[in-house]
Design brief:
The chain has eight helices and nine strands. It is α/β, with parallel strands linked by helices. Strands 5-4-3-7-8 form a five-stranded mixed sheet, with helices on both faces. α1 packs across α7. The longest helix has 16 residues. The radius of gyration is 17 Å and the shape is globular. The two termini are about 25 Å apart.
């Protein structure tokens, strides 16, 4: 299921806030896409689901279709950072900024993901994950017209600050936020945005920016397929549907994100 919107080497350097977003310097590398994969590692994700998620990303970067999508760009390379997050105090870079420019580098990234230990945190702070990912994009040693945060999760923001201000801050930088709501278990939740309505919550309260979209995972056996599909859509950035998230239109009467996050 996809819902969308129309609406912007390994090293990290601190950029002067007064410079244009992608002002060139001697250390910067031009790429077609700067992508932060912000992956839920909260306690609501059981170990099996975490392994499925991590293995799904590793398999996606080994996929010939994903590699072909990367090589279809004008610069034939993207920059990727992989982050696991949970409560407001915990965000960890599992794979720092890495250039992927073909089968060898894509397979190396997959191997690093597969070998890294899993992280497990308490609580779900989508807001802090967005803030952390926005900072990573701002501090990367790459230049691109496209900045994307790809955020996954199996529940709404339930710790720390509300999502909307951090989403707005990201969108103001021209960043696109895409979502991978994980809707495998639907036993708990209440209110307007329950786990059963997590796709609506992501659409209305999380995603936004040019070509933003949601890909939903509804079964464990579709995890890897959904991740591969999502990565290809992000890399090639084609228009998907005319459904517009609340982030790009202003609040709707039935979208009460802060009230239903807790």
């Amino acid at each position: 299921m996809i819902r969308g919107a129309r609406a912007g080497v390994t090293a990290v350097v601190l950029l002067n806030a007064l410079l244009p977003r992608d002002a060139m310097s001697a250390g910067e590398v031009p790429v077609d896409l700067k992508l932060v994969l912000a992956v839920d590692a909260s306690s609501s994700m059981d170990i099996y689901e975490q392994k499925l998620q991590r293995n799904g990303y590793a398999a996606a970067f080994r996929s010939p279709a994903v590699i072909a999508a990367i090589m279809s760009g004008a610069r034939r390379r993207i920059a990727v950072s992989y982050v696991e997050w949970g409560d407001p105090e915990n965000q960890i870079v599992v794979v720092p900024w890495t250039v992927v420019d073909g089968a060898d580098s894509s397979n190396q990234l997959a191997a690093r993901l597969a070998a890294a230990p899993l992280n497990r945190f308490f609580g779900t702070s989508i807001a802090q994950a967005l803030a952390y990912s926005t900072a990573l994009l701002s501090q990367s040693a790459f230049t691109s017209d496209r900045w994307v945060i790809d955020i996954s999760g199996d529940g709404p923001n339930n710790m720390g600050p509300p999502v909307e201000p951090e989403r707005s801050a990201a969108l103001s930088r021209g960043i696109t936020i895409n979502g991978l709501p994980i809707m495998i278990r639907t036993r708990w939740g209440q209110g307007a945005y329950t786990l059963a309505g997590l796709d609506d919550y992501y659409r209305d309260c999380v995603i936004g920016g040019p070509d933003a979209f949601v890909v939903v995972v509804r079964s464990r056996d579709k995890f890897a397929e959904a991740i591969e599909r999502k990565l290809i859509l992000e890399i090639i950035a084609v228009q998907r549907t005319m459904i517009t998230p609340i982030a790009d239109t202003g609040p709707a009467d039935d979208a009460v994100c802060p009230a239903d996050e807790k």
